[in-house]
Amino acid sequence: MLRIHFTSDDLARVRFAEEPDPMWELNISLHRLQRRDASVLFGPWRRQVAPRLPGTTRLLAALSPARGYTCDFLTPQAGQGLAAQVEALRSTPRRRLRAELDVFRRMHPDVRLPSWTAELATGSAHLLGRLAETAHAYFDAGLRPYWYTIQEAVRHDVMLRVRHLAHGGWAAVLDTLHVSAHWHYPVLSLDFPVEQDLCLEGRGLLLQPSFFCRYGPTVLFDPSLDPVLVYPIEHRPGWERPGHGPAARRSLTALLGRARALLLEAAADGTFTTTELARHTGLTPSNASRHLTALREAALISSRRHRNTTLHTATTLGTALLDGCRPALPA
């Protein structure tokens, strides 16, 4: 069981990460590769990427095994962006390397670390450089071709949770982060492989949606690091196929214009208010309302009043148009 202890100050500092974290996705996707689980969702992706992954992936896998503790320095807290995170990994202090490798040995008593990790513990710039280069190469081969889809899924999850927050407060968000989540102020409890307590102590909490996280949330092991809760999101089978990326967006944009294409795609994922769709697409509410009117007149979305708001969703015709702008799969 994982227990996260809040204060009133922490609740005021809870926030969402609006984008996927490259190094978290890298490490958790590596777990999916090693465990070979969730075949419906990730089996096709594994078959596509396995032949093109760099041979040095084994260096990362040694420190990020399929189950149990993964060295925290592999998910550096350097803000969004792969380049900044890779550079932070490259400059990991020797004291941290030594401490986390010691934790790894304690947490995995039956796992024998490769001999090169002894040199890594001394702060070897050469080995840190190889790890950083491997992380970049792995991302390019295994994640970059799918990054648009990963981004869209994470953004959609955040939009839904912001809606929960608006309607039910933080209790509605924290109670629904995972099927095992139980919120009873001041503690959020979640299923976890080990007994662990995380005391936020006024630092707040970053809620990080993860595309490759599947079974349960995870956190950093070191309690002195900025608190982050990585949790799984939902996505559809077939996400790895063509037609879910920039090419599909370009064809839809050419047909409708950028703003209306964004609104139609967002409205296809559920029923949302004008304000929610504006926030998700980066439009002002007035512009969103104007474009939604045009989409409604074209029978691509339907709108209905609910109390003092208007709710929008894509029609059957709108959904068919979205599907038609995606290239057919090869026979």
Would you spell out the secondary-structure blueprint of this structure?
Layout: E1 2-5, H1 8-12, E2 14-16, H2 22-35, H3 39-49, H4 57-63, H5 82-90, H6 94-107, H7 116-120, H8 125-143, H9 147-174, E3 182-184, E4 187-190, E5 196-199, E6 205-210, E7 218-219, E8 228-232, H10 246-256, H11 258-267, E9 272-273, H12 274-281, H13 285-297, E10 301-306, E11 309-314, H14 316-324
Parallel strand pairs: 1-5, 2-6, 6-8
Antiparallel strand pairs: 1-4, 3-4, 7-8, 9-11, 10-11
Helix pairs in contact: 2-8, 5-8, 10-11, 11-12, 11-13, 12-13
Strand order of the largest sheet: 3-4-1-5
By DSSP, the count of extended strands is 11
Sketch the topology as an H/E string, one letter per element.
Answer: EHEHHHHHHHHEEEEEEHHEHHEEH
Proportion of residues in extended strands: 5-15%
Morphology: globular
Helix content class: 40-55%
Look at the structure and give the mean pLDDT.
90
Roughly how many Å apart are the termini? 47 Å
Query: How many H/I helices?
Result: 14
Unreliable residue runs: 327-331
What do you see in this structure?
By secondary structure, the chain is of the alpha/beta class. The protein contains 14 helices and eleven strands. A hairpin with a 2-residue loop joins β10 (301-306) and β11. The longest helix has 28 residues, at 147-174.
Summary, kept brief:
Helices cover 49% and strands 14% of the residues. With 331 residues, the chain is an alpha/beta fold.
